[in-house]
Amino acid sequence: MSTIVSLARGAAVATPRRDDAPLGNRLLTSLSPEDFGLLAPHLELVSFAVGDCITRAGDPIDSVCFLEQGIAGVLDSLDDDRRYAVGLVGAEGFIGWPLVMGDDRSPYDVTMRAERGQALRMPAEALLAAVDQSPTLRLTLLRFAHVFMVQMGRTVVSSLAHSIERRMARWILLYHDRVQADEICMTHEEFRLMLGVRRSSVTDALHRLEEEHAIRAVRAKVLVHDRTKLMALAGDTYGQPEQDYVRLLQMDRRR
Amino acid sequence: MSTIVSLARGAAVATPRRDDAPLGNRLLTSLSPEDFGLLAPHLELVSFAVGDCITRAGDPIDSVCFLEQGIAGVLDSLDDDRRYAVGLVGAEGFIGWPLVMGDDRSPYDVTMRAERGQALRMPAEALLAAVDQSPTLRLTLLRFAHVFMVQMGRTVVSSLAHSIERRMARWILLYHDRVQADEICMTHEEFRLMLGVRRSSVTDALHRLEEEHAIRAVRAKVLVHDRTKLMALAGDTYGQPEQDYVRLLQMDRRR
DNA sequence: CGGACTTTGCACGGTTCCGTACAGCAACGT
DNA sequence: ACGTTGCTGTACGGAACCGTGCAAAGTCCG
User: Fold this and answer.
1) Cβ–Cβ of A149/B152 closer than 8 Å?
2) Domain for residue B147, yes or no?
3) For position A12, what pLDDT does the model report?
4) Nearest Cβ partner of A101 from B98, B145, B157?
């Protein structure tokens, strides 16, 4: 943390990646040594603070980020100030997938939603070159994009069919999956943005989840207490993309 | 319609495509002669009736469909009976994009939403083989998938931020873009499914749109009257994916 | 023409969620 | 200690929307 200073707009100062550093990103660890070798020379470690912008909607994508720590919120915005979360990405994926799908611009704002966010970053051209060289690398990256797309679909269904309480249960699960501990650092205000509701609705919904002993809410934090109960509440808007991820990327689930 | 009989479950009887037949699918027409040549030998003409299932959620994708006429609704379903529309695909795209993204199963139900639907169908293996041979073909198909993903993102935002009336304006526009006439054949019940609301809410919203002279609603039909007014209502949940489509697939908009 | 069926219009009370406002409480710097 | 700031709890009336049920109108078919 001494030499890695994070700046505004997510233009974090980067350090070269040390070859012996352990990998936290599950896409990278799932790659064959050959495929990883295509990427490794270009990877550099960057760090982000809460709220840092990783990509901005409409901007050209000049680099991609494989998250190692932290969670990125993928936000779509209306012309007014309001922004809504359409998905979450953590160490199970990467940021910049439109590149692999033939677009050089990001349709979304992507911002860091956790403290001490870290990612391995590489230039867009290097990624495209690597993808052109290795069909298996391309496949892995595309599969992640596909799973993310499925997640977005469930977000649509969830927001159409479910109450705030149920939708909140789902987001907590999505968050929980991507975080190391049972402790989720998020204020009601941040929940409000994700769910697209009023702040006090968040308060109420959290209380109801607390009454059912699914979580424990303390200041600026949510402690996950009963994952099973959360899953029951979220219903089948949670689970499908997660199963697809395991099936397509041949990995074990973290928990 | 004499020899092409549509069956239940979308297993329409197919006829070989005649080489001199004009193409209606905008993805196919945008392909280079070489790329189209990779697909042409495998294309066969199939037709669908309203409600025919083109792909079913969870099933293996054994063929892809380039729509020539009609509109397909992409539906995500909860375990109960309720299904919600996450997007629409017409002659500007194709059905079966998860294949190109490395999944051989469809996460969605896709059903024909217009009468006299027609598509050029080809086997999944043939498509995958063609895509492996031609990077430009792959790029075109991926770009469509990407634009569809952007459309889904806007669906999330629209359902979070907008009233039924505004969301309806958006769906009418999406439908209108993909249909040849200003006449949209759809009952309130079908709207209900797309929007995830109660049937009489559809009635009310249509009345409001009618009062503003944006549309004219008659039995089982909506006549688009003032597209500009619809776009004003839909706000910026309409337009972005459409612009992206033009930008990425280098085509003129139909209207 | 008459009956069956589909589609649409409308009304009722009830619930969820909104916008807004304000007060209590925790964290923090000085 | 004190004020400042950020986070949370709570309350109020109002709007949007729901589930339901039923009647009217259009369409189809014999």
Assistant:
1) yes
2) yes
3) 59
4) B145
Q: Is B31 found in the same domain as B137?
A: yes
| A180 beta carbon to strand D: under 7 Å | no
Chain A residue closest to B80 (CA)?
A236
Residues A61-89: what's their mean pLDDT?
91
Is B116 found in the same domain as B13?
Answer: yes
What domain range includes position A74?
8-134
Which 3 state secondary structure label does DSSP give B216? strand
Give the confidence band of A97 by pLDDT, cuts at 50, 70, 90.
very high
Q: Which residue has the tokens 């100030």?
A: A81
Tell me B41's DSSP state: G
pTM over 0.70: yes
Do the beta carbons of residue A97 and residue A36 sit within 8 Å? Answer: no
Say yes or no: Cβ of B207 under 7 A from any atom of strand D. Answer: no
Give the per-residue pLDDT at B251: 62
Distance B243 CA to C2 C1' (A): 54
Residue of B nearest to A109 (CA): B153
The answer to whether residue A3 scores a pLDDT higher than 50 is: no
Nucleotides of C under 7 A from a protein CB: 6-11, 16-21, 26-27
Residue B250: per-residue pLDDT: 75
Helix (H) or strand (E) holding B74: strand B72-77
For a pLDDT cut of 90, what percent of chain A falls above it?
Answer: 80
Does any CB of chain B come closer than 8 Å to the CB of residue A104? no
Which domain-ending residue is among B155, B188, B206? B155
Q: Are residues A183 and A237 in the same domain?
A: yes
Is there a domain that residue B255 lies in? Answer: no
Chain A residues within an 8 Å CB radius of B107: 150, 153, 240, 244
- Cβ neighbours, 10 Å, residue A8: 10
Based on the fold, state whether residues B115 and B215 are members of the same structural domain.
Answer: no
Q: Do B244 and A78 touch (CB under 8 A)?
A: no
Q: Residue B49, SS3? A: coil
Provide the pLDDT for residue B146.
98
Nearest CA distance, B36 vs chain A (angstrom)? 19
Same domain, B147 and B173: no
Mean pLDDT over A57-85 rounds to 91
Does position B2 have pLDDT exceeding 50, yes or no?
Answer: no
What are the strands of the beta sheet with B215-218, ordered from one edge? B183-185, B221-224, B215-218
> In 3-state terms, what secondary structure has residue B69?
strand
Tens digits of residue pLDDT in A138-196: 999 999 999 999 999 999 999 999 999 999 999 999 999 999 889 999 999 999 988 99
Cβ–Cβ gap A149/B76 under 8 Å: no
Q: Which of A192, A155, A147, A189 is nearest to A173 (CA)?
A: A155
